[in-house]
Amino acid sequence: MRVGFRFKGLFFDSPAVIKAVDDATYRALVRFGQYVRKVARHSIKTRPGPSAPGEPPHSHTGLLKAGILYGFDPVSRSAVIGPARIRGKTTYGPVTVPELMEYGDTVRGDGGRMHRYEARPFMGPAFQRGEEKLDDFWRDSVK
User: Fold this and answer.
1) Residue 18: in which H helix or E strand, if any?
2) Does residue 12 have a pLDDT over 70?
3) Dihedral sign (CA 37, 40, 46, 49)
4) How far from the centroid of its chain's Cα atoms is residue 61's Cα?
5) Which domain holds residue 36?
6) Which of 97, 95, 36 is nearest to 63 (CA)?
7) 6 inside domain
8) Are the C-beta atoms of 23 and 39 separated by less than 8 Å?
9) Which of 11, 79, 129, 138 is the most exposed place for a label (fewest CB within 10 A)?
10) What H or E segment, with its residue span, contains residue 105?
11) Where is pLDDT greater, at 125 or 21?
12) Does residue 23 lie within any of the structural domains?
């Protein structure tokens, strides 16, 4: 009597396993992007006046809050999360308003005067909260 094994379908490089891992990667990173976007949007409050330095910025027009997007980049197999470039007079030299809010900087305003903006991070803290839940997004994702 001859007993044999078919090893071809049992290895991790089989097309079925590769597809399952790719699908799980997509699902986990999309969920991560959704979560980070939600946390960042919820951290931006609609209130008059500026927020305190070190706190997330206040939303006056809603553009910054609504402009936080996420997506999956299939080439690098990664999640891309962050504010979209806001159109209009939003750049101060090489710095955009979302960057100015996140990191702070000194920029030249209209009339040539220098203005110092303190950082009001909103994406960094949201990303850190997302990293804490990343294990949950991956758990049991490959079936």
Assistant:
1) helix 15-43
2) no
3) negative
4) 21
5) 11-86+122-138
6) 97
7) no
8) no
9) 11
10) strand 105-108
11) 125
12) yes
Say how far apart CA 58 and CA 40 lie, in whole Å: 12
Q: Which helix (DSSP H) or strand (DSSP E) does residue 139 occupy?
A: none
Looking up tokens 């470039």 gives 85
Q: What angle do CA 127, 72, 28 make, to 5 degrees?
A: 65
Which of helix, strand or coil describes residue 89? Answer: coil
Task: List pLDDT tens digits, range 67-102.
Answer: 999 999 989 999 999 998 765 554 566 678 888 899
Residue type, 54: G
Q: Which two tokens stand for residue 29?
A: 């990173």
Question: What is the token pair recorded at 28?
Answer: 């986990």
Helices 123-138 & 15-43, crossing angle to 10 degrees? Answer: 150
Structural domain contains residue 92: no
Q: What is the pLDDT of residue 1?
A: 47
Helix (H) or strand (E) holding 69: strand 68-73
Domain count, the chain: 1
Retrieve residue 47's tokens.
């209130």
Domain contains 130 = yes
> Do the Cβ atoms of 96 and 55 come closer than 8 Å?
no
For residues 136 and 126, the answer to whether their CB atoms sit within 8 Å is: no
